[in-house]
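Morning. Coffee machine broken again, so started the prediction first thing and wrote up yesterday's gels while waiting. Chain of 390 residues, entered below exactly as on the submission form.
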Amino acid sequence: MTRPLDKPAIRELAQSFGFSACRFCDAGLPSGVGERLQNFLAAGYHGTMGWMAETLDRRLSPQAMWPDAKTAIVLTMNYGPDHDPLAVLAKTDRAAISVYARNRDYHDVIKGRLKHVAGKIALTHGCAVKVFVDTAPLMEKPLAEKAGIGWQGRHTNLVSRELGSWFFLAVILTDAVLEPDAAETDHCGSCRACLDICPTAAFPAPYQLDARRCISYLTIEHAGPINRELRPLMGNRIYGCDDCLAVCPWNKFAATAAEQKLRARSDLMEPELAMLCGLDDAAFRAFFSGSPVKRIGRDRFIRNVLIAIGNSGDSALAECARARLDDASPLVRGAAVWALSRLLESDDFESLADELAASEQDEGVQTEWRAAIAGEATAGNEAAGRSTMS
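Came back before lunch.
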């Protein structure tokens, strides 16, 4: 038999472990959430994230994962930056890494503390608990809105009147029951800042995201070559994109991260593209040890770096790209071809193509050479000049 949860005591407990907010709701998803998710998948907006469709049944209801779940305890941990995260976009020889990924992996930071909180709740209240930090098919954002943490803004991310945009979500499901907190309502008003700043026009309409055009998806989730049309628009963003978060007016209430492990490492604030491009697998793993960046692997990461080099307009970086033409990874070699087609004079690039293109064995890299030789790789240069690089 479960007992009512002591909400004030749980909030105090959560705060003692570094969580900035703690609110409660019943474990069912708000109405309409399932239909919106199904429409998202039907439109193909999930791109290559096939796991979203594969886990659809469990996503549609927390009880599908745990039938006994009655209450969701939704917690936040703030990771706000102490600087303008968009300033690095003007430094074309440097890399822009999303604020959340500039230090320790938040899963590691939060999950241990969440387990401590959940364990104490279970021990004190005699209830069963399960913890979630963005690794299971649980739709945390709708639950957070239902619990009153914030609302899903026009960019589909959660926004809080107290925390702004810079916070992580964690959820404890329990079989105990309690009085739910009031849900939050939408406070975006007529603001379009997040929609208008998106470099790749990834929002087909307010409150809709086409992940296939989202730089966060392209640099993190997408494993293969990135659409040549979109590459010039990515600027120097090599892991994630903060544009739509950073321009939200509600960030005037955001605070700098209290947890030291979530504050940016100095060497990840604006690392040099030339240095990053030279990382082999061992050096990549060592440099990003403990970082969420490590999970995409070295080859996908270097692909992103080479796209940024191609967008830099800095001919001095051409040698970095040329050094990757004999990389063991076809994904890296193809990105190097594209970067060089953007940085070299046409005669120099044609000479390089005459020397190397015919000997390439990988079909995907051959396609990159053909497209570059035909001039397709430079399509979108004018659009790149309009991107938020400055």
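Residues 220 and 295 are 9 Å apart (CA to CA). Going to sketch it on the whiteboard this afternoon.
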